[in-house]
Amino acid sequence: MQPSLEKLKKYFSLERQTGFNDQAIIGGLGKILDAWTAEARNEGVSEDIIEAVSARLRDYHALTPQGRADSLKGLWRRIESLEGPSTPEPLSQPAQESASVEAAEAAALPPSAPPAAPASPGGDVKSVPPKRERPAPQRPSASKPAISDSVPGAKVSGTPAALNASLTVLSGVGPRHATTLAKLGLHTLGDMLYFFPRRYDDYSQLKPISRLFYGEQVTVIGMVQSVTARPVRGGKMQITETILSDGTGALRITFFNQPWLTNRLKEGMSISVSGKIEQYLGRLVMNNPEWEPIEVESLHTNRIVPVYPLTADITQKWLRRQMNQVVTFWSPRVADPLPQSVKVSAGLNDLGTALIQAHFPDSQAQLKSARERLAFDEIFYLQMGVLRQKRDWQSATARVFAVDDSWLSARVAALPYELTGAQNKVIGHMRDDLKAGRPMNRLLQGDVGSGKTIVAALAVAIINHSGAQAAIMAPTSILAEQHYRSFQSLLTNDSGENGYLRPEQVRLLIGDTAASDRKEILDGLAGGDVKVLIGTHALIEEPVQFRDLQLTVIDEQHRFGVEQRAALRSKGTNPHLLVMTATPIPRSLALTLYGDLDLSVMDEMPAGRQPVATHLLTPRERERAYSLIRSQVANGRQVFIVYPLIEEGEKSEQKAAVEEHDRLQKEIFPSLRLGLLHGRMRPDEKDAVMAQFRDGRYDLLVSTTVIEVGVDVPNATVMLIEGANRFGLAQLHQLRGRVGRGGGESFCMLIPDHEDAVENERLQAMAGTTDGFVLAELDLKQRGPGEFLGTRQAGYASTLKMASLSDVALIEKARDQAQQLFAADPELKAPEHALLSEAVQRFWGGGKGDVS
């Protein structure tokens, strides 16, 4: 018999023991329906049984005790006729299993306290404490509750299916309120458990009024001495003033536009207020504090108070009350998917405790432990999925491509310059991958100008040597054109002899490709004559069909989504994969997000490449930068000037590319040719401007960060970055890499918005090192992982809510635990890992992921 029917038998036994007085479940037996039907459907109980139970229990409360007994007996006989007999019969003999009201209540819906006065989420009901009894929740508005993926263990753990119930089961939450909460991503009770506070206000330190100081955030308990209200601003605003005394002194409390408080705050009432101490006319005051009568459970004051994200028509206090009733009731009932061995080894709390303490912590230490447990879960699940993807990839078969040393030596010798040690090392990695018999799956990290393109071209040459095809996808048309010229130079000669391709066998496919050329390219691909195709998203369009695609190269891979990368790989059968990025990714982040990829790092610059001289200037020193620009342009060089925003309206303090382009042209460089490039231009417009700058038709290019990726303008020697404090160090390093690509001396000048000592110290690191990985590590510590994520996070179900990808110690601990468990049970087939298997699947969105 399914667990839901066993549970129903317990309810019926309890009802018999209590004399059929409809008290087996608080609120009445009919209140189990929404949760029970959801659970029964999940278990596959027949709809005939579900309908019969719903019909009998819906009106159960209206029957006499004898009528209730007859109804339940008849219902159980109906269940047995459809399901088969079950012993013992719950209504004719004592139940064999011990059952209690408390046990049955645990499977019912959460306790909820109705508002003492009519109030919407936008109103504050402050003076009436929540009741301690547990009234019956409202029935969900929909017959079938929404399904949520946020709660682990829904199938095998016994976690109550009621967590999938709609929020309308909560007292005070109707369809309109549920629609509002849905804007916060809250659809079910389970969603609420994982809707964590965005910050916490610590009001746990009480102070007497006589010891208060200006600027403190405190909680004060006292007695109301007086309450007065008066209109201000011609009656447009109402001020309510209360004098609070605790025996050591008096404090004036001011509330704005809350006239109803004159009826709720009474002289002699003891209250607790929490807020910031301010000053008015030389006296300490507190404006618009949180407050509660001191006899109620302190959800808003006298504790560490959670502060949740809000949306329109929802107040913090109203949402906090709803969260409290759900979290305190349901957290202990959520089964823990993490194996006990992992929890002990990693020193972690159990999940129920962590959920409660993450929402309503008893202390800062408890909050820290709770957040560590929940963050560990996220990294652990992420690592388990990454390890699974790597295993799946390695278990696939791929064609073997091997070349002898003499062939490779001849190709390397024909290159225009000598390879660096880092380049030779990466080529060795790729040779091993291509002859291993399984698909290469390699991430190539190389600093700007480190020579990634040549390495990729040699991998393509190895594939072409056996007659197979390769595809290279770039994020922009101009970068694709740049690769096209490079690959034509490195892979072809006019005769197509000595292992080289003919020029017509390396083609470019972008949005602007003429229809006649496009047909010729498509025919050549399908026939196998075109061996290398370079392009943008046009490569993944339906008409593009390869005869024998065996290698896909994705440049600046974080610019592409999961579906785009998968679409390109699907053009072949288990093709080898090389993804490249010029963004230095800290090792901890690379192991976490890209653990399914084999990692190669090119951290050595080609010989003769001079470092870009980097200088931090104050806003008052801007004219020095302009003088350098004029002198460089006079010597035939070109200049980038980068701004953080497009138009002034976005944030008035920041320089904006559009307005500054006009000012620079009219006032600063009237005799020079200035181009303008920003992200709101159409792709063809951006490509045209960039091509004109590359061809020397502009002296200066005023731009936003759209020039960050891959553009090669060898004649550019100056990079001026305005509002430099708005950028991360990794992004500044990328921008700096746009100059100095043609040899000779080059310059990068950083001008922050203000002369801020802390910001200037951070930016000074740019002048102190040209090592992108050093800067990336600093960025990770100072600004978090956002600089490096790109669209990679689309590979898992949701963004990390608790984990910080800058917490290297936690990442290493979770990764180590995941590797140990994966080595012992990669399929998670062991019975004790059943919950974990579900949780990992749910975290990764039902198994959808991406290897790149």
Question: What is shown here, in short?
Answer:
By secondary structure, this protein is an alpha/beta fold. 38% of the residues lie in helices and 15% in strands.
Structure description:
The longest helix has 32 residues, at 364-395. The protein is globular, with a radius of gyration of 34 Å. With 852 residues, the protein is an alpha/beta fold. The protein is built from 28 helices and 21 strands. Strands 11-12-10-13-14-9-15 form a seven-stranded parallel sheet, sandwiched between helices. Helix content is 38%, strand content 15%. Helix 2 packs antiparallel against helix 3 (47-58) and helix 11 packs across helix 12. Strand 5 (270-280) and strand 6 (283-287) form a beta hairpin. It starts with a helix and ends in a 9-residue tail after the last helix. Among the domains are: 3-106, no CATH class; 205-302, OB fold (Dihydrolipoamide Acetyltransferase, E2P); 450-581, Rossmann fold, CATH 3.40.50.300; 613-769, 3-Layer(aba) Sandwich (Rossmann fold).
- The CATH C-level class name of the domain at 613-769: Alpha Beta
Unreliable runs: 93-156, 647-654, 789-798, 846-852
What structural class results from the helix and strand content? alpha/beta
Taking the sheet with the most strands, its summary is: 7 strands, parallel
Q: CATH superfamily of the domain at 613-769, called what?
A: P-loop containing nucleotide triphosphate hydrolases
Count of DSSP helices?
Answer: 28
Large-scale geometry: globular
Could you name the CATH topology of the domain at 613-769? Rossmann fold
Helix content: 25-40%
Number of strands: 21
Q: Roughly how many Å is the radius of gyration?
A: 34 Å
Instruction: Tell me which CATH architecture of the domain at 613-769 applies here.
Output: 3-Layer(aba) Sandwich
Terminal CA distance reads 45 Å
Lateral strand order in the biggest sheet: 11-12-10-13-14-9-15
Strand residues, percent: 5-15%
Mean pLDDT across every amino acid position: 80
